[in-house]
Design a protein that fits this description.
four-stranded antiparallel beta sheet
């Protein structure tokens, strides 16, 4: 609510590109301060992505997308999550990339499908 779906998807696609190009520092720098604290470091993003990529292989293409809106239970803060289903060389992966109402990167998760 109040967020532009196209903008959320476009910002999410940029994060996917950075993740698959190994731009860990850039991604970490884009995270909001509280998200940086919970993530820890660019090395933590790198370790997570290398673990997933070992299972799915190199990125090939984007297959499907959707955007959902949620609220943080404890604070009521509204945010949007862009969900991307992507084909990689060996398997599919799902990317969940969350943005605050101000389009700040507040979370990301990549899993093998």
């Amino acid at each position: 609510e109040g967020m532009d779906e196209a903008a959320v998807l476009a910002a999410g696609e940029e994060i996917i590109s950075d993740l698959n190009e190994g731009n860990w520092e850039e991604i970490f720098d884009q995270l909001r301060e509280d998200a940086q604290a919970s993530t820890g470091s660019p090395a933590a993003i790198q370790a997570h992505m290398e673990s997933v990529l070992a299972k799915v292989g190199p990125f090939e293409k984007l297959k499907d997308t959707m955007v959902t809106g949620q609220s943080v239970k404890e604070t009521g803060e509204k945010y949007a999550t862009a969900v991307f289903y992507c084909q990689h060389d060996k398997n599919q992966a799902m990317y969940r990339i969350a943005f605050s109402a101000d389009m700040e990167l507040i979370g990301l998760q990549v899993t093998k499908q």
